[in-house]
Structures are given as structure tokens and as C-alpha cells.
Amino acid sequence: MWPSLIRVVNAGIDGRSKVPCLTTASKIERGFEGDGVAMLIRVHPAPMYATNCWVIAAEKGSECIIVDPGMPDISAEIEMIIEEEGLKPVAVLLTHGHLDHTFSVIPLADGYGIPAYIHSEDRRALLHPEIVHGKEFIENYLQGTTWSEPQQVLELRNNEKFEAVGLDITAIHAPGHTAGSLIFTINDEVLLSGDVLFAGSIGRTDLPSGSQDAMKKTLATKIAPLGDHLRVLPGHGPDTTIEYERRTNPYLKELRT
Ligand SMILES: [Zn+2]
Ligand SMILES: [Zn+2]
């Protein structure tokens, strides 16, 4: 039994049905009815830890980004999605350095000859995962594994904007779950929230490089100012919206008291 890397409290409880859930549908076509999200979004939850790996493109047949390819090696499944949609990958985005989000980065980034983007603080975790998992975790569960980086790694910092695949992407540094956690807005429609914000919960802060104080500050200064309209695509569990989380998520409600 692998130890828990995530903590999802209250996810999927009553009222969730008011937010049309896209993750269970596993596919959002351009112009998905009523949600205002005009892009192609596919999700593949990885077998271990059910980490959501997102494939996002402006539309079928265009260039795409791959977000958080997890554990074990899920590159074949992601390649299948890419083929089905006729997409051309141009980048792998990593919300943070935990292995359940980065494990398949090498076969995908090097396989397609594309760069992987990660925050400078979490980049070290690609070569030294014990920095974010602790020595014990690596020794107990992944002993003997050799760690390396994809051929092209590009570091991101707070508020870095880049245009890729016809999508406007902004990286926001959101430490707390790990020191180098990032969240991304896409076209002011979607928020990739990594393990910072989940439907009904937040990411745990007790793993190495996590910090409860940093998380509180992130929630107050990086999450709270976000627009209600944003569709939240989290690292684990169902998707949600900022509006719904602001109203119901105990960790966001707490900010107002
Ligand atoms: Zn994590
Ligand atoms: Zn995770």
C-alpha cells in the first residue's frame, strides 16, 4: 500500500451536481454546452493516486499541451488521446515536482522532442525526488530507480506568460503544497490548480517543502483574487469552478472570517 500524497476532504459531496462535472465526462469539446470553455480538454486519471493528466488544445487537430503526466508510465494512454484528436504536442507543463505528476514526463517530452516546464523551486525534484517526498518514501517504494530530467527543461517563475498552441497561458507561483507549486490560467477560462486547490479541499502541506503558512498566503493572494467564472481543473478529483469553491470550500470560506 503506497502512502497518501493527497488529502481530499469533502470532495464530491452534496451540491456538487450543480457544477456540471467535466472530469467524469473525460472530454470537453470546443463549445461545451453552457460552460463557456472554448477549448478541447481531455483528461486521463493516472492509475496511481488518480492524478489527472490533462491534454489541452484550442481545438481538434491543433497543437496541444500535456499537463502532469503521472504514475506509472502513462505515455501510451496519452499518446492514444493525442492520436485520436489529431493533436501535435508542443509542451509538457508540470504543476509541481511530486512523482504522481511528473513520472511520465521523460517518455512524453523526449518522445515528442518537446520541453517540460516546471517552477525553478521544484525543478530539483526531477533529479532528487526525496526533496519533495522525503528519503523514506523513495527508499521504501522506489529504491533503485535512477532519476533524470527530460532533455529540455524550462523553468517558470511567478506571472510568467506564454502563448502556446493558440492559448494564452499564465503561470502563477502558488507555494504551500510544495515550494515550487504552480497554477496556470488558460485564456482566462480555465485554471489548472495542481494540488493547490481541489473541489471542496486543498492540497496537504505536511510533505517535505510544504508549508501551511505559505499555503494560507497562496489562498489569500493567489486563489482569492481569481475570477468566479474560471473552470478549475485540479490535480486530483472532479473539476469545479472558482465561484463554487469560494462559496463552499471550507478553506476559502475561512479566508473571509
Ligand atoms: Zn502533490
Ligand atoms: Zn498529486
What does this structure look like?
With 257 residues, the chain is α/β, with parallel strands linked by helices. The protein has a single domain (24-256), classed as Ribonuclease Z/Hydroxyacylglutathione hydrolase-like (Metallo-beta-lactamase, Chain A). The protein is built from nine helices and 15 strands. Strands 1-2-3-4-5-6-7 form a seven-stranded mixed β-sheet. Residues 7-34 have low confidence and may be disordered. The protein binds zinc ion (2 copies). The site of one zinc ion has 10 residues, from helix 2.
List the helices and strands and how they pair.
Layout: E1 27-28, E2 40-45, E3 52-57, E4 63-67, H1 75-84, E5 88-93, H2 99-102, H3 105-112, E6 116-119, H4 120-127, H5 130-133, H6 135-141, E7 153-156, E8 160-164, E9 167-173, E10 182-186, E11 190-194, E12 197-198, E13 201-202, H7 212-223, E14 231-234, E15 240-241, H8 242-248, H9 250-253
Parallel strand pairs: 4-5, 5-6, 6-7, 11-14
Antiparallel strand pairs: 1-2, 2-3, 3-4, 8-9, 9-10, 10-11, 12-13, 14-15
Bound molecules: zinc ion (2 copies).
One zinc ion binds at residues 5, 96, 98, 177, 195, 203.
Shape: globular
Query: Under the CATH scheme, which architecture would be assigned?
Result: 4-Layer Sandwich
Which class of secondary structure composition applies to the elements? alpha/beta
Q: What is the overall pLDDT average? A: 87
Strands ordered across the widest β-sheet: 1-2-3-4-5-6-7
Strand-and-helix sequence, N→C?
EEEEHEHHEHHHEEEEEEEHEEHH
Number of strands: 15
In the CATH hierarchy, the third-tier topology is known as Metallo-beta-lactamase, Chain A
| Percentage of residues assigned to helices | 10-25%
Oligomer: single chain
Largest sheet: 7 strands, mixed
Q: How much of the polypeptide forms β-strand, as a percent range? A: 25-35%
